[in-house]
C-alpha cells in the first residue's frame, strides 16, 4: 500500500472528534508558518483528508437526524387519524 493510500485509510478510521482535533492542529501549524514548502503541502493534504472525514461524519449524523425526525412525524400523523 502506498504511503498516501495508507494515510487516507488511517484518516477514515478516525472518529469525528479525533479528526476534528487533528485538523485544528494542522491548521494551527500551517498558520504558524516556519515549515518548508514540502511540509506545508503534506500538511495541506492531511488537512483535506481530515476535512473529508469530518464532513462524512457530519453528513451521516444529519441523515440519522433527518430519518429520526421523519419517523417521528409519521408516528404523530398516524395518531392524528384515530
H-E order: HHH
Number of helices: 3
Report the β-strand fraction as a percent range. under 5%
| Distance between the amino and carboxyl termini | 60 Å
Name the quaternary structure.
single chain
Number of strands: 0
Radius of gyration: 20 Å
Average pLDDT level: 89
Gross geometry: elongated
Low-confidence stretches: none
- Report on the biggest sheet: none
Quick structural overview:
Helix content is 87%, strand content 0%. It has 82 residues and is mainly alpha-helical.
What does this structure look like?
The protein is mainly α. Helices cover 87% and strands 0% of the residues. The mean pLDDT is 89.
Which key terms come to mind for this protein?
82 residues, mainly alpha
Topology:
Layout: H1 3-12, H2 16-32, H3 37-80
Helix pairs in contact: 1-3, 2-3
